[in-house]
Structures are given as C-alpha cells and as structure tokens.
User: Fold this.
Amino acid sequence: MLTISSEGTRPFSLVGWVGDTKYPYTPRSDLLFSLELCPFILIEECSDRQKELDLHRMLLRAELLVRVMNSLTNEPFVAVAVYITADNVAERYLVF
Assistant:
C-alpha cells in the first residue's frame, strides 16, 4: 500500500549513542512516500534561504535509511531524495 505523509512523523525511530548517552531520533521530512511502511521518496523544501541546511539533513536521513534497509534485506535499496531550493528548483538525488 502506497502512503503519502506530510505530518512529520515517521513509522519508525532510531537510537544513537554519543559517548555513554543514548539519543532517540525520529527522521522527519516535509513529504514522504512509503510503500508498505518502507520510505522510498523523501522531499524537503528549503526553509533556510541563506545556507540551505535542509539539503544536508535530508541527505543524511536518506543515507541512514539506505543503510538500515540494506542491512534488513538482501536487495540493494535506493532512496530518492528531492530538494526544493530557495529558487524553487527541484533537485533529485539518488542515494544508494
């Protein structure tokens, strides 16, 4: 089943360690397409017109998603990430 989500919450969360401290992290994006709860298209719109830091956060989320999906399946996983720049140009990234 195809799901399109824009409310910001995701069907999964992650836990990372920094030193001895554990930090939960729930990935968020402006728009997410998922198939059977597996995200495969992330869309982010620029909210910081000076530095466009959203692009870097989106690519890190896509990288993490690909690493998790590749560890869970035997098939190579490719995430599509679309970033809408401050000039309203859509840039597409394939993360694998």
